[in-house]
Design goal:
Layout lengths: L1 H20 L8 E5 L5 H9 L4 E4 L2 H10 L7 E4 L8 H7 L2 E5 L2 H14 L3 E8 L9 E2 L3 H8 L5 E7 L12 H17 L8 E3 L6 H6 L4 E4 L1 H4 L3
Parallel strand pairs: 1-2, 1-9, 2-3, 3-4, 4-5, 5-6, 5-7, 7-8
Helix pairs in contact: 4-5
Length: 230
């Protein structure tokens, strides 16, 4: 378990340093291990090293992994990739949280699935700040309306926002995107206190998570820095 355990320890140390530099506590920041493309054996090593928050990008890949590790009741699975509305029922069955909610149709389908299964699902609105054609997300000017609509849907707990900025070789160039997501969250909470539940900001990946923490991230999504290159 050496490499993965060592990588996790180094990531945790980097999180602690980044938090300290901006006068935050590392306990405010959830480490979400993104297990996309990595086999169950490697995920099991990460779990053995203390990780319980796991993220997947695709429902089809996630399902067999979740099923194979179903004996671990302490695991929390998050969907961080795009979700089609016709897969909403299965998503509610296997995930504890969906970070990629970006339209009312999908929100309605997830709500209906929650009602049918008797489950409650934590959701985050994915906000499109980079306006890249290959990425999903709600336009920034529609987030307020979408948050209001989601807040009325039974079974869904709207707990914050998520974004995926453009990739830059210099991670500091992601700072404006992370700062803007924080500003959107704070504005929504100012206008409607409590509308975002846990007030999460899911932002920052292996190459830029320290910048995200400096700008207020509460969930960082780390894959490569834990498991290696895909």
């Amino acid at each position: 378990m050496g490499d993965i355990a060592g990588n996790i320890q180094r990531v945790r140390e980097r999180i602690a340093r980044a938090a300290s530099l901006c006068s935050r506590s590392e306990s405010e920041i959830k480490l979400l291990a993104v297990t996309k493309t990595f086999p169950v054996a490697m995920i099991t090593e990460a779990i053995g090293a203390g990780l319980v928050h796991l993220g997947e990008n695709r429902l089809q890949e996630a399902e067999p992994k979740v099923r194979s590790l179903s004996g671990r009741a302490d695991l929390e699975w998050h969907l961080v990739g795009h979700l089609q509305s016709n897969k909403a029922r299965l998503a509610t069955e296997i995930f504890h949280a969906v970070h990629s909610l970006d339209n009312l149709k999908l929100a309605t389908k997830l709500s209906q699935a929650c009602i049918a299964t008797g489950k409650s699902l934590s959701v985050l609105i994915q906000v499109d700040l980079g306006e890249e054609p290959t990425k999903f997300g709600a336009p920034r000017d529609l987030v307020r309306e979408l948050a209001s609509e989601i807040g009325r849907l039974p079974g869904l707990c709207l707990d914050g926002l998520m974004t995926i900025p453009p990739f830059f070789r210099d991670p500091d160039q992601t700072r404006p995107f992370f700062a803007e997501l924080r500003e959107i969250r704070d504005r929504l909470e100012y206008e409607s206190p409590g509308c975002l539940g846990e007030k999460h900001l899911s932002m920052g990946m292996s190459h830029d998570f320290e910048i995200a923490i400096a700008e207020g991230a509460t969930i960082v999504r780390i894959g490569t820095a834990i498991f290696g290159s895909r």
